[in-house]
Amino acid sequence: MIRNAEYEYETAYLMSDISEKNNRIIDQKINVMEKNGLYEKVNELSIDKANKSKILKWIKALPTNNFRVRPTHYRIGDVFMHPFFQHPIVLMKRIQNGFICGLLTSNPNCTVALSKCDSRLFYESYWAPTLTIINDSDLDTFRFYGLYDNDKEIQLIYESLSEFFHRVY
Description:
Number of domains: 2
Helix content: 40-55%
Strand order of the largest sheet: 4-3-2-1-5
Structural class: alpha+beta
Order of helices and strands: HHEEEEHEH
CATH architecture of the largest domain: Roll
Shape: globular
């Protein structure tokens, strides 16, 4: 009888754990659906074009929950959300224990922005004149954002930024 009670307790514990994991996955799917649904609903509103485009850009910039999807190893072009800057960073060049990264901004009025991004996923973003070094161990704590799909542009931006910083310093 005691053995049966222990078995039922363990089974109930495992089922609650599985249920919790399923609820987290469902919550993540709901968040993504809510973002898409919100975008569609705002797009249907009858408000002036300037405000509507600002709101739609803001909705596009909302992060989706990619907690389940993380790269097994890091490559040039991986994009992470930097926890301090609160902007996406792009891995640009591999160094000994990490990467040299470029910073993206979504502010079109940024006076020092280098150029508009030429990417399918980050078409509303601009390259900021910033290079930072991130260790591999630090990247484990950053939120994975996606993949920058234009390797040629990453190389060009890196070369222009490194040339600029060599002239300045």
